[in-house]
């Protein structure tokens, strides 16, 4: 938790010229009566209430008592000037919107969701000092029409209202739609018991989608609050309605200039809908349960632009996939989230922010808008050095996010960072941050494929890799034979990551890879932080046969290549979305007995998606390692058990990223040779 600074009615202190917020980069002068802005050098008066004397080195005597003078990150309580229509915001609302078409009822999914919500609504997020959550909840079900539910606490039974005009969606009730769960508990529980029965005999298989988002948006607008829609959906929306989609999946477009259209929405209405949602602080979380093409590129667009999260469970089976889905849902509902957010990045003179990548919406070139932002989302910013920088003063960055907290308080979160500047190129290479570069190149490439042929994007990535390394070779490295490949220490693994990015299913069009899978990965990566892209592109491979249950140490990860596997071993492989347990044909019987409680390799069932709970040190230790890996990642990874030389091994092998891919991606060694050739050409 960050320190919260509250200046009451006056609000945060800012520079008059560039509007930067009070921070450690402001220099106090004239005995503390004025301050000079570190970003634009403007001299400002210190407000009387904020005045403080300076000590013998020109620092305020209260320097360490004030977070905004001594810390890199802190929060301000915002005043009404920072609120919509200058009114204090209402606490946000969560609306649960369930697709009750034939497939979802039949698969048991609707009942599963309703049963889970009964316990989950007690865990809605709240501020530390609050007894219960301020978030209100509402419920909608839909197929070709929309059903709204009145769950007012004074009712004995919930009431259903049907909206069948899906072309012009309106909210049929105001009072009783959004309620406090604690007050309306019995009515809500009653409703959740009734929904699966209400639609038990349905044979309606067609669904709508855009009107569902529109309905949630209208409900939040009517209640004058921001919020999140949780939509549980399972098929292509083919019913006659706005946002209707057709199956446009076409393998003939692969490796042509038209391939980019597969990543663009097929109808324009989703862009307009996303814009409306962002303008009203309506974030859309989408849980998809497809068993065929669903057009993720179109359906996920609103989720992407509103800072929501997209979840996808292919061919959902109640018994094997419930744990993964329920864990994702629980985590998402309990997440710390900011609503109706807007972000500004300010810099000192000499450079400026020019591009932004993330689950964000931008109406102009400076304001990053997010209907919601949570702890798992990251925005990547590109800066342009367009004027003189100074080694003494360095380069300063201030990122300010204005948002509404879960209790409905308007706040500003401020992050400040000062970077060193150097006129020596070698210093830049020494301090280079390869993981951040990988994140940036992945996001910029995944943004570029919307407008450029994939072949061009791949070529640009290769050229940029070669350019960075050739520049080092030419200007920083000690002279040596041209035939030698020289990499700066801090960028030793850059070619590994670049090759992984080039081989990712998003950038490689192959008929075997579903279009939806590519669109899904593209969307996830756009919102990822550095640690998540690092693991996603280069998975972690742990040899667990060398696990010692008596110590606390986790076995060191090995390189992602087939040559690291051994017939007598067992390995865990994770990339943040999937988790594999690979077993060699001659894995020791005691290991197999300890993990699966069966006598031999042949007895292991690959159907299981969880390890059995066994009372032995080895099993307990492995389970605690898996739990730890899982706790650091936003998506729940379903465990897939893979036996050496059996069919599912194909999926696992695709993640051994240093090897040649079955889809034609280069091995790491081949890619190094290719980069080396490019470097030699550039230098000659």
Automatic annotation (TrEMBL):
Stretches assigned to the Sec23/Sec24 beta-sandwich domain: 338-421
Main localization (coarse): cytoplasm
Top-level taxon of the source organism: Eukaryota
Matches recorded under InterPro entries: ADF-H/Gelsolin-like_dom_sf, Beta-sandwich_Sec23_24, Gelsolin-like_dom, Gelsolin-like_dom_sf, Sec23/24_helical_dom, Sec23/24_helical_dom_sf, Sec23/24_trunk_dom, SEC23_SEC24_subfamily
Domain Gelsolin-like: 553-625
Location of the protein in the cell: Cytoplasm, Cytosol; Cytoplasmic vesicle, COPII-coated vesicle membrane; Endoplasmic reticulum membrane
Residue stretches making up the Sec23/Sec24 trunk domain: 89-333
Keywords for this protein: Cytoplasmic vesicle, Protein transport, Transport
Its membrane topology: Peripheral membrane protein
Residue intervals of the Sec23/Sec24 helical domain: 434-533
Single annotated GO MF: SNARE binding
Family matches, as SUPFAM superfamilies: beta-sandwich domain of Sec23/24 (SSF81995), C-terminal, gelsolin-like domain of Sec23/24 (SSF82754), Helical domain of Sec23/24 (SSF81811), vWA-like (SSF53300), Zn-finger domain of Sec23/24 (SSF82919)
Keyword Protein transport: yes
One annotated Gene Ontology cellular component of this protein: cytosol
Record's keyword annotation contains Protein transport: yes
Zinc finger Sec23/Sec24-type domain: residues covered: 12-49
One GO-annotated biological process of the protein: intracellular protein transport
Similarity comment: family membership: Belongs to the SEC23/SEC24 family. SEC24 subfamily.
Entry protein name: Protein transport protein Sec24D
Biological classification of the source: Eukaryota, Metazoa, Chordata, Craniata, Vertebrata
